[in-house]
Amino acid sequence: MTARSPLRVGIVGVAYAEGTHLPAYAALAAEGLVELVAVATAHRDTAEAAAQEHGIPRAHVGFQALCADPDVDLVDVATRPSRHRPMVEAALAAGKRVLCEAPLAPTVADGEAMLGAAGDRGFVDMQSRFWPGVTELRRLVADGYVGRVDNVAATALYPTFTTERAIASSGWCADAAHGASSLRVHGLHTADLLRFVFGDLTDVRGSAARREPLWDGRVPADSVDSAAWTARTPDGAVCSVHSSWIARFGAGFRLVVHGSEGMLLAEAAGHTGHFPVRLSGARVGDDAPRELVAASGSPVEPFTRLVRALATGDAADVPTFADGLAALRIAGAVETAR
């Protein structure tokens, strides 16, 4: 059997990528699955500094140069949502596959255009799917662990932008024009988990609000910071989701599934993109829920699993641009109701 060549990756943007993307590529390079061949930023000094620090062979100034690089197979767009569309379209026009940070785009119209251009070459970094606790939740629901699914309730309540550290590193999220909000980030990842486990959601209704006009008393904020919505699964179960990134004492993520024969509970101490998911469950006749999957693993692991799937050709569960667009449509429906 012929050995598979490493997936050659070029990454656009390094600020967000420092925490998750770059460590994941380093780990996969050590396995011979990935080769990080190029990086691009808007300025030569930052591009060259990132290349030198992370041992990346080529530094490009501007995303267009990286997209045109013949040695790049996959372009990883790790920038703000408002910048995604031109970067993604340039990569697709150059014949590349694309992995785009979530949310896919700032608007549904942008997402539709990007999906139309991508075909089967577009993937979205909604890596929460790749925690073992989530994949086991999906398997158990499909296998009938809870019987008929009747009620699904999720909360994603985080203190993110009540902390000086988050505001200093990601204060741009305060400006709605950049395309991020609690609904479009934590709410979007939660929506993708629900779609991954149960299928397409319908009858989406909700409310979104901007409750904190000044982050840390100094950063004006007009992005949605709190949202709640309901939906129905394909089998008719009722779902509810409540998300916020200004919940000062927010307890993290919780997703509970109640059915005719049992229940399942997925929990994480923080945003599911980076915090491991614990799964517990109980069936009729049990005295109490028991742990089924422990909450273990580093913050880099789900993204590493996602890219490994792309590199090995086992990408059936990797979120696509169609999944990213579906999540955007849910956010759009909630925002329109507001």
UniProtKB/TrEMBL annotation:
This is Gfo/Idh/MocA family oxidoreductase. PANTHER family: BCDNA.GH03377 (PTHR43818). The keyword Chaperone does not apply. InterPro entries: Gfo/Idh/MocA-like_OxRdtase_N, Gfo/Idh/MocA_oxidrdct_glycsds, GFO_IDH_MocA-like_dom, NAD(P)-bd_dom_sf. Residues 7-122 form the Gfo/Idh/MocA-like oxidoreductase N-terminal domain. One of its GO terms (molecular function) is oxidoreductase activity. The lineage of its organism: Bacteria, Bacillati, Actinomycetota, Actinomycetes, Pseudonocardiales. It comes from Pseudonocardia broussonetiae. Keywords: Oxidoreductase. Residues 135-264 form the GFO/IDH/MocA-like oxidoreductase domain. Pfam families: GFO_IDH_MocA, GFO_IDH_MocA_C3.
